[in-house]
Amino acid sequence: MPGGDGATEPLATVLPHGRTRDEEFTAFMTAAAPSLARTAWLLCGDAHQADELVQQALVRTYLAWDRAREREPLAYARRVLANQRISTWRRRRREVLSGGVPDRGVADGQDARADRDQLARALALLTPRQRRVVVLRHIEGLTEKEVAADLGVSVGTVKSTASRALRQLRDALGDNDDETTPAGVSRDGGRS
């Protein structure tokens, strides 16, 4: 990162708004990191892996910053994040988030954590493509068109993948009521 005015930094380029490339990326990174961290956790279900995914995605986004900032930088970073997760999944091939659900009851203050853990286990049962579509569409709240653009697929593919994935999640979570979807996700695609 540049120190001071950025003029002594050989890689720092002054941008039209008087900010250096590094300053512009730092502002983006600060704003986007929480959203990317949430998406990464939902994609892999592990906090440490999610942190690594976010770091890798931010590095790759930084390296392609000139191209990424001219489009939608957050969408670009999410796509890099999803692609990194696919690469990680392919290397590991099989991943188990945890054993079963404990037999003991859950204290009142831990209900949200238990729901989140149950959702993470259910998401782990989906294929990587299904998981990406569900996370981006129903948890991050993107439109079908935005998900299609982020993942480089057609809107029809997003719709069919989401439909199959949600049916699989309902089965995994024991929710066979057609009027509801899993753990805090409304049928219209947003958080409830």
Automatic annotation (TrEMBL):
Similarity field: Belongs to the sigma-70 factor family. ECF subfamily.
Keywords from the UniProt entry: DNA-binding, Sigma factor, Transcription, Transcription regulation
Ranges for domain RNA polymerase sigma-70 region: 32-94
Annotated ranges, domain RNA polymerase sigma factor 70 region 4 type: 117-169
GO molecular function (one): sigma factor activity
Residues covered by region (Disordered): 169-192
Protein name: RNA polymerase, sigma-24 subunit, ECF subfamily
Pfam families membership: Sigma70_r2, Sigma70_r4_2
InterPro entries given in the database record: RNA_pol_sigma-70-like, RNA_pol_sigma-70_dom, RNA_pol_sigma-E_actinobac, RNA_pol_sigma70_r2, RNA_pol_sigma70_r4_t2, RNA_pol_sigma_r2, RNA_pol_sigma_r3/r4-like, WH-like_DNA-bd_sf
Origin: domain of life: Bacteria
Gene3D superfamilies, per the entry: 1.10.1740.10, Winged helix-like DNA-binding domain superfamily/Winged helix DNA-binding domain
GO terms (BP aspect): DNA-templated transcription initiation
